[in-house]
Design goal:
Helices cover 0% and strands 51% of the residues. By secondary structure, the chain is mainly β.
């Protein structure tokens, strides 16, 4: 779908729905809903820079999606994906400004940019929420110059939480919450990393999972971690500052 003047695209299917590449130069909103499986190819490109909203829904089955947005997209991009079964969004989600990203699978796995980056070129980002019955998976969220990052929440009811890294340079501090039944790490048994080059990190770990997550404040700030997960915790925590700053990191361990 590449008609230059297309600004809004709405697709509704009573059965399965599959789309081709959506690269209309002026596309702003894409909404696709399928009663059964939904498959959506790349949305946006280097010539389509006004994308603001993507909503993808399968009411009874899963959603498969590809790249959403681009490094040159100038608008704040919000993405919402809902499915009764698995969500598999492969490739980056990107814009110079990223709003809220939400992926919720009520009966399967939610995988978002598992081998890619959410907001590689973003200067600001809203909340990132990935919720699944089985596994909640992503690759890297943010970048080392990301000035603001909302709350990152990853939740798995019956499986694992897996992410490679969460990066920001947010002087206001960032919040990262993860809860799972089996493991919380990078998906391969190695510690995931949370780094804020600009300020504090507030984090929580919950569920029955064994957690391996490292937290680093690179310039000035503290790490406040509350770990109530019952499967154990392996973590390296680094804060930054001088004695005169009188900063205190707080680590609260429940059954971890």
């Amino acid at each position: 779908i590449s008609a230059a003047n297309t600004k809004s695209l709405t697709i509704t299917g009573a059965d399965a729905v599959s789309t081709g590449v959506i690269t209309a130069a002026n596309i702003e909103t894409v909404s696709a809903t399928a009663a059964k499986a939904l498959s959506v190819s790349t949305i946006n490109s280097s010539t389509a820079n006004k994308l603001t909203t993507v909503n993808l829904t399968s009411t009874t089955e899963g959603v498969t999606a590809a790249v959403i947005g681009s490094a040159t997209n100038t608008e704040t991009l919000n993405v919402t994906i809902n499915a009764a079964k698995d969500i598999s969004q492969a490739g980056a989600i990107n814009s110079t400004k990223v709003g809220n990203i939400s992926a919720v699978s009520t009966g399967g796995t939610a995988s978002v940019a598992a081998a890619a980056i959410v907001g590689a070129n973003a200067t600001t980002m809203g909340d990132v929420t990935i919720t699944a019955k089985t596994d909640a998976i992503t690759g890297t969220i943010g970048n080392t110059t990301l000035a603001t990052l909302g709350t990152v929440s990853m939740t798995s009811t019956d499986g694992k939480v897996a992410f490679t890294a969460i990066n920001a340079k947010d002087t206001g501090g960032i919040t990262v919450n993860a809860s799972a039944k089996t493991t919380i790490d990078n998906g391969s048994g190695v510690a995931a990393t949370v780094i804020n080059d600009g300020g504090n990190i507030t984090a929580s770990l919950a569920g029955a999972a064994a957690a391996k997550v490292n937290y680093t404040v690179a310039t000035k700030g503290v790490v406040n971690l509350t770990a109530t997960n019952t499967g154990g915790l392996t973590s390296t925590i680094k804060n930054a500052g001088a004695i005169a700053d009188a900063l205190t990191s707080t680590i609260t361990l429940g059954n971890a």
